[in-house]
Amino acid sequence: DVTHGRILYLEDVHRSFDGFKAINGLSLDIAPGELRCIIGPNGAGKTTMMDIITGKTRPDKGTVFFGSTIDLLRHSEPEIAQLGIGRKFQKPTVFEQLTVFENLELALKTDKNVMPSMLHRLDSRQSDRLAEILHTIHLADSVNRLSGNLSHGQKQWLEIGMLLMQDPKLLLLDEPVAGMTDEETARTAELFLTLKGQHSLMVVEHDMSFIRTISEIVTVLCDGAVLAQGTLDEVQADERVIEVYLGR
Ligand code: ADP
Asked: Pfam families per the record (predicted)?
């Protein structure tokens, strides 16, 4: 078993765009229940890496496994979502004209064209799960509020809640605290620490103080490969990391 019990396993992945090597020999793995932060300068390949994991982009070569048995390169983007990999883009995309509750309810439906009024009632297991998620995402007091009236941070939490309704094993999050107030950022750290253990998380972030509060291991991407990996203190003290952040 090449994946050594990892939830996510990438080995020597390559992807070029018109001859430009956006991903160039990327190897990386994530343990079950781990919360991994990914940092790296613009153009390092962070978005392309997430596109490859979620099946939005295909690598030219390399190995991408989910758990020890699932070869992600044999699955389509919707199949990969069904398998339990949830992705959140930087901007919140909640349904603003619906309530918090309706957004979470809708997240259970794979056919998003159906109106909330046409949804079947949740079964008791789903209702329990929804209530638990509302609490986790700090929106238990806002269940009947219109999502359009939520703050930016609350919308981000709601979208994370919508992903959680699908009970993903792995969550990929792109700059989750960008644009948040300090208090929202602190509560997002709390939220992530609650999720860790039950889910594996891969978080691309630039906010170093946020990373410090949530992460054990930080991976630094540069030029489409891993430049350094370790605690935030270790990678911040690494000469090569300092050079790519300050020297370019
Ligand atoms: P990051 O998210 O770390 O900023 P990206 O993965 O977005 O990095 O981009 C890595 C490099 O690949 C960039 O130089 C970018 O211009 C290039 N790239 C990404 N996607 C495409 C594409 N679809 N077509 C052409 N070039 C791309």
From this structure: ABC_tran, BCA_ABC_TP_C
